[in-house]
Design a protein that fits this description.
The protein has 204 residues and is mainly alpha-helical. 65% of the residues lie in helices and 6% in strands. The protein contains 7 helices and 4 strands, in the order E-E-H-H-E-H-H-H-H-H-E. The strands form 2 sheets. It has a two-stranded antiparallel sheet with strand order 1-3. It has a two-stranded parallel sheet with strand order 2-4. The N and C termini lie far apart (63 Å).
Length: 204
Amino acid sequence: MNSKIVSFPDIDYSKPIIANNLEFTSELSMLGLQLFSMTENSLKNVRGDKAKESKIINDMFNTWNFNLFQQTAFVAIVNSLIPQIKFEMDEEEFSKHIELIMKNNTNISKEQARFLAEKGFQYGMIWNYFSNEWKIVVSNEEVDEHLENYYKTTNNSIREYKTNNAEYEKVRMNLRMKKTFTEANEKFIVILQMPITIKKKKQD
């Protein structure tokens, strides 16, 4: 990526950040599919044992909720920082991304595509900045362990990841992203305040 961050503000980690909305990202959708597959396969091995079935299902929901809140917190952190950061966008790179978004989402306008592309670039650059700043790395051993656990819990083949370096590196990047989310949640104070709507009961 040729686009880059030109200047980044000093961060006051003691200042609370408010998150008002739960954030559902494409990465979270993929995680949901993986969790469902892993849970389904795990349940096949304990059919009839209600206690074990209950534990497996509870573990799935706990993992889902943990990742949902982690990503929600990270989006809130990023949104609080964007106005203070100076970005330098590579126009050719940016235009290609807009075209790609419009190609995959034919029902949106160019202005909407530009907004999504800008947010995507900004989020990606801030995530990369934090990953480098906090020296977050993922070893081959961690990638291999993750793949082996994935195979054991889903029984899905991992051959493609083992033989295709590009796919192997995607797994590394995904794990690095999760580590960055975790580190961000440990460093920043994020308060989740969900809006609640109370409907008054109609009077006769």
